[in-house]
Write a structure and sequence with these properties.
Layout (H helix, E strand, L loop, with lengths): L1 H23 L21 H15 L2 H20 L12 H62 L4 H20 L5 H12 L1
Helix pairs in contact: 2-4
């Protein structure tokens, strides 16, 4: 019996210690923001960077950029051909010019892709708004169609001006016949009216 008591006491002591260590361990609070960590890389605003990349991509797609790029390349080549040899910085195979154009292309391609991605996101939002607007207009159109159909059904039961005019003419004719002494039986009158209606 004694070993059983000792094992239960030991298990209780382990549970108490485990609870104590869990209670003393510092846990992050969920109602407070995390403290800022130091970053090795510089931070930037993604929205500002996106706007800058769009501006650069728009400039790269203009004729002005092509003209300036062509002028720079022509001046570069002419300078390195006709300038005095001690002032030349890139001789005939123009390796440095090739390197600069490759560097420019390697930066231009991702900037253009970033601008296209931002434009795709804007287009997606615009399409979603257009879809919701068209759904609302379709629902409004269906509602108005139902209302117009209900009005037409209601107007089918309303007396029209032509129907009232024909009834009044029949009534005047009946009054004149009674005044003249002719009495027309109701069956004949209804038969004549049916013929007139057809």
């Amino acid at each position: 019996m004694a070993p059983e008591r000792e094992s239960t006491r030991e298990a209780a002591r382990e549970r108490t210690l485990a609870g104590a260590t869990a209670a003393t361990r510092s846990r992050p609070r969920l109602d407070q923001p995390r403290p800022r960590r130091r970053r090795l890389l510089p931070e930037w605003d993604p929205e500002a960077f996106g706007r800058l990349s769009e501006r650069i991509a728009r400039f790269l797609g203009t004729g002005r950029f092509l003209v300036w790029m062509t002028l720079v390349i022509i001046l570069w080549v002419l300078w390195n051909i006709f300038a005095p040899s001690d002032l030349r910085f890139d001789n005939y195979p123009f390796i440095f010019l090739t390197l600069m154009l490759s560097l420019q292309a390697s930066y231009a391609a991702p900037l253009i892709l970033l601008a296209q991605n931002r434009q795709d996101d804007r287009d997606r939002v615009n399409l979603e708004q257009d879809r919701k607007a068209s759904e609302r207009s379709i629902a409004d159109t269906e509602y108005l169609t139902r209302e117009i159909a209900a009005l037409r059904i209601g107007l089918g039961e309303v007396a029209t001006r032509d129907w009232i005019r024909s009834e009044m003419q029949d009534f005047v004719k009946e009054l004149e016949e009674r005044r003249d002494g002719h009495v027309v039986f109701p069956a004949e009158r209804s038969r004549a009216r049916d013929v007139d209606d057809r």
